[in-house]
Amino acid sequence: MAICTPLNSSTYSSIIPQQNHHDAAVSFARRACWRATSSHRPRRGFTVITCASSDAGTVVIGLAADSGCGKSTFMRRLTSVFGGAAEPPKGGNPDSNTLISDTTTVICLDDYHSLDRTGRKEKGVTALDPKANDFDLMYDQVKALKSGVAVEKPIYNHVTGLLDPAEVIKPPKILVIEGLHPMFDERVRKLLDFSIYLDISNERDMAERGHSLESIKASIEARKPDFDAYIDPQKQYADAVIEVLPTTLIPDDNEGKVLRVRLIMKEGVKFFNPVYLFDEGSTISWIPCGRKLTCSYPGIKFTYGPDTYFGQEVSVLEMDGQFDRLDELIYVESHLSNLSTKFYGEVTQQMLKHADFPGSNNGTGLFQTIVGLKIRDLFEQLVASKAKSPVEAKA
Ligand SMILES: Nc1ncnc2c1ncn2[C@@H]1O[C@H](COP(=O)(O)OP(=O)(O)OP(=O)(O)O)[C@@H](O)[C@H]1O
Ligand SMILES: O=C(CO)[C@H](O)[C@H](O)COP(=O)(O)O
Fold first, then answer.
1. What is the domain range of residue 298?
2. Within a domain: 11
3. Does residue 272 contact residue 194 with C-beta atoms inside 8 Å?
4. Rounded to the nearest whole angstrom, what is the distance from the C-alpha of residue 67 to the centroid of ligand 1?
5. Is 0.85 exceeded by the ipTM?
6. Digit-coded pLDDT (tens) for 194-240
7. For residue 206, how far is its CA from the centre of ligand 1 (angstroms)?
8. What is the rounded CA–CA span in Å between residue 107 and residue 175?
9. Where do runs of H (alpha helix) occur along 16-170?
10. For the chain, what is the domain count?
11. Whole-angstrom Cα distance, residue 268 to residue 272?
């Protein structure tokens, strides 16, 4: 199956033998940990090194989706909002799934597979099955990182299908846990400050995954029962869902090239004010094509309004169609409110910066960029609130 976050930049293994990766990584973390206060070995044999991520602790974001749904692309958009490039841990395992930037560390939950590829085959379970994953360790380590403690996280090697020696993860300002199950285990779910679900389940046989790849389609079919049982139900817990659907602008469309994308935003989430179009709480339908936005067939249609999702109050912003000219996106941006931008046109600037990323001409790229800005805003508000009431923040 596809690789979670493909990495390729390290020549470390040619310098340090494989068996020494672990010690070297721990020593690296100890050196880099700017406020190391203690080191001990708790249960399950992973070393923890106490660091302080920031005065406000680590903010934890969960991003759930099946393999190949665009999590890595989304993460590149998110880390770009915070500035700086995201890279694999320096001098580490070249097959690490982790991405680190100045502010964020993105870890892939595939690293908590308890069964390797052979083990899953022998037991007849997929990677989506909770039996193939170690939720106790996931919980322990996310909790440790959230409270400023570095951990030795295992690595699932997508190239070999084996579980590799652990890598040290220091507590970042923002920890993103991305993968199949960030909201599956209630204990892990409760650690999340914000959660997102990428829902392309209605679209997966179409443009996103490619019709031509029969083996991928067969694999998707084989995984479907477990996807329905263990992955899909997590969307009910998400604070924001990006849902990809077929267009309704082309009658009986079966090409799947034009997408209708919905950004479903839960109401009442602390530090998260849903984006709105024209008038908050109203129901709006808007076709922006005309003098200020170039649109070719089948055009673009935005809708916005209140709704319910799994019995919860939400606001939904929808974009059907695709942009012809990204520089004209500023016209759309100027009609959206609560975007959490720092300056006029920031959404357009981000979209233009990554015009070559998949989804930049439709609602997937637009809504991922907007969610990235909302996460930055949430992070800043959380930091500010904790600075105001440090006692409460520690509770
Ligand atoms: N918004 C999008 N629209 C169309 N294609 C996309 C979009 N996002 C990603 N893709 C394509 O889907 C494939 C998987 O993308 P990506 O690596 O970001 O997903 P992923 O969920 O991280 O995958 P994996 O779990 O396999 O690592 C790539 O070929 C990418 O170009
Ligand atoms: O669902 C997945 C998450 O990305 C992968 O299929 C799972 O991690 C197993 O990986 P591989 O197929 O490389 O053994």
1. 239-382
2. no
3. yes
4. 8
5. yes
6. 999 999 976 544 444 344 556 666 777 788 999 999 999 999 999 99
7. 13
8. 8
9. 21-32, 71-81, 117-123, 135-146
10. 1
11. 8
Cα of 154 from ligand 2 centre, angstroms: 15
In a domain, 348, yes or no: yes
Residue 307 inside a domain? The answer is yes
DSSP secondary-structure letter at 24?
Answer: H
Pocket of ligand 1, beta carbon within 6 A? 2-4, 65, 67-73, 208, 358-359, 364-365
Distance CA 154, CA 119 (A): 16
Residue from 69, 77, 220, 356 whose mutation best tests the ligand 1 pocket (most atoms within 8 A of CB): 69
Q: Whose CA is nearest to atom 4 of ligand 2?
A: 67
Question: What are 30's strand-pairing partners?
Answer: none
Residue 197: inside a domain, yes or no?
Answer: no
CA separation for the pair 315, 320 (Å, rounded):
16
Residues 280-286, mean pLDDT to the nearest whole number: 97
Distance of alpha carbon 209 from alpha carbon 256, whole angstroms: 11
Amino acid at 218: A
Q: Nearest C-alpha to atom 2 of ligand 1 is from which residue? A: 359
Residue 213 CA, ligand 1 centroid: distance in Å: 15
Taking only the tens place, the pLDDT of each residue in 286-339 is: 999 988 899 999 999 999 999 999 999 999 999 999 999 999 999 999 999 999
Nearest-ligand number for the alpha carbon of 68? 1
Give the count of beta carbons closer than 10 Å to the beta carbon of residue 275. Answer: 22
CA atoms within 13 A on the CB side of 321: 19
Q: Ligand 1 centroid vs 231 CA: distance in angstroms?
A: 17
Measured by CA distance, the residue closest to atom 8 of ligand 2 is: 110
Q: Nearest C-alpha to atom 31 of ligand 1 is from which residue? A: 358
Identify the three-state secondary structure at position 55: coil
Which residue type is seen at 41?
Answer: R
Flag whether pLDDT at 38 surpasses 60.
no
Place of tokens 């809504």: 367
